[in-house]
Amino acid sequence: MDTKEKLIERFVRYASVPSQSDQGNEQVPSSPGQWVLARMLREELEGMGLTEIHLSEHCVLTARLPAKEGLEGAPAVGWVAHLDTADIGASDTVAPLLIRNYSGGDILQDAEGTRRIPVAEHPELERYIGDDILVSDGTSVLGADNKSAIANIMCALQKVTEEGRPHGDIYVAFVPDEEIGLRGAGALELSRFPVDYAYTIDCCEAGEVAYRTFNAASAVITIRGVNAHPMSAKGVMVNAVSLAAELIGSLDPDQVPEKTEGTEGFVCVTSVEGDVSRCEIRLNIRDHDRELFDEKKSRLRELCSLIGERHPASDVSLQISDTYSNIEDSLRGKSTVCVDHIFRAMENLGIPPKDIAMRGGTDGSLLSARGIPVPNYFTGAHNFHSLAEFLPLSSFEKSLEVTLELIALSCEEGSAGTN
Ligand SMILES: [Zn+2]
Question: Which of 178, 196, 363, 405 does the annotation list as catalytic?
Answer without folding.
Answer: 178
